[in-house]
Specification:
Oligomer: single chain
Number of strands: 17
Structural class: alpha/beta
Distance between the termini: 73 Å
Largest sheet: 5 strands, mixed
Number of helices: 26
Strand content: 5-15%
Length: 617
Amino acid sequence: MKHHRAHLLVCAGTGCVSCGAFDVKTALKKEIERRGLADEILVVATGCNGFCEKGPIVLVRPDDIFYQRLSVDDIPLLVEEHLIKGRPVARLMYTPPADTKPVPKMADIEFFRHQRLIVLRNRGRIDPEKIEEYIAYDGYQAMAKALTEMTPEEIIAEISASGLRGRGGAGFPTGKKWDLCRKEKASPKYLICNGDEGDPGAFMDRSVLEADPHAVLEGMVIAARAISAARGFIYIRNEYPLAIQRLDIAIRSAREFGLLGENILGSGFDFDVEIVRGAGAFVSGEETALIASIEGQRAAPRQRPPYPAQSGLWGQPTTINNVETWANVPSIIRRGAAWFAGLGTETSKGTKVFSLVGKINNTGLVEVPMGIRLDEIVNNIGGGIPNGRKFKAVQIGGPSGGCIPTELLDLPVDYESLTRAGAMMGSGGMIVMDEDTCMVDIALYFLRFTQEESCGKCAPCRIGTRRMAEILAGIAAGEGRPGDIEKLEELAWTVKRGSLCGLGQTAPNPVLSTLRYFRDEYRAHIEDKTCPARVCKNLISFAIDPEKCVGCLLCLKACPVNAIAGERKKVHVIDQALCIKCGACFTACPVKIGAVSKLTGEKGRALVPEATRATTS
């Protein structure tokens, strides 16, 4: 293998690609060739680095210097200073939000320091389209061990002893699931990788498939050997084109290397996989609905039992796990169950991948040991809340999860703790909210999502979520009535208990958790006709403080409906009858002036003419 004095690892995950990563890569290669450095410096496109908010990202090795938010215009300077003169460019480095001094090395950045990588062990360091690079980092060693040194029973015993639980939501023990399928007499048996990821704000599975597709394939081959399956399917939603492309390359490469297909590694074991593209329905993530989709039917769940391990794809025994679960398997087989079980808590072993998004400084993909405190994720890895705002809650588990409030920031992140707190691990979506978030509005958003994604097969889900959304919409519009909270709770428990599948059984969670921790906000909307967070349009008003207004015209120019009147250097006024409460004036007014206020309650209502007040209070 040719030696290079430096490797430039260009993050080519979807986030960075959308910000121009391929343009940066092309510019780097051109500049390096122009400088006659092509034999010394190698440019490599890797999978997602994880720190998505800072893309495009380039990591320079062996120095481990982390460059962020690069543009094509930055490249000549970077090559000249760092790669020719040996002087890293400080202005292109990451600077923490509360600091002015950049942090040159990736390992010293808080976002990376507190993580523990197992599933994402190869992120940002290998080219996912080159199987040789995966093999160079111990890739397919676990598979070779499983095929040549272990019996199916020993493989399952190792996975069971590790304590690995399914990372797709419910947390069912993986070894137990495999064992149930292995013991079934019927043949053939099938494997499925669930890559359908429909949670708002979630991109864990997509990133793993983009960054390390061979880890998923290797995990599937090991499981196939354990349950005696010869055929597997990877179900992935069609709007993940980069993940599909890299997975397709990985499958073809593995076949060429004899790591998939007939007589793998000369062991006499046959197993192959194919990709199935999903249409993008959230309910397809439910395993029986996903199976129906692969069979060519409408993605609707069915009653269980029988479970897929007994009667799954085409009525045959089927093991189904999600992307993250499969990617854990090679490390467990290679390093041993005791090593994996040594991480995490008593009942939640190993690590968990989260997509950290929302009102947080460091947005991206993180992998942390089970049991880590929520505060460490939000304030250490995530860097806290932007613009000096206060943390209010974090939604964990996607639309089926729940909102965890400030007073529970010390909560350990594991399956049982989250469930007791009214949330769930889910697939790993983590949406952070600040003090400007209305919890009634948030509950309505997630409930509308699940209502629209309901397949409609069972009445509790189809009708119950719709009725709940209607009540919530009324409260958010200032039309809530006494008794609405009690109706919501009754409906929520009815939907949870009566729904056929996990979508309906968990859809009320955001409502129940916000009622549990933010009940006062619901009461304020209903009883006082106020929105404490000043979000719900019917309950807020905008006004200009005449003592602060300098007549700069910025709010007037920003207003899309000409509701603001005023002349330069004279006090401006908002016509409340014309105002559509879009907030453009509030945003346009400079912070140092702060003349535009957002009001709710009596102050806001006082601004509204009597003739129109009936619709806004």
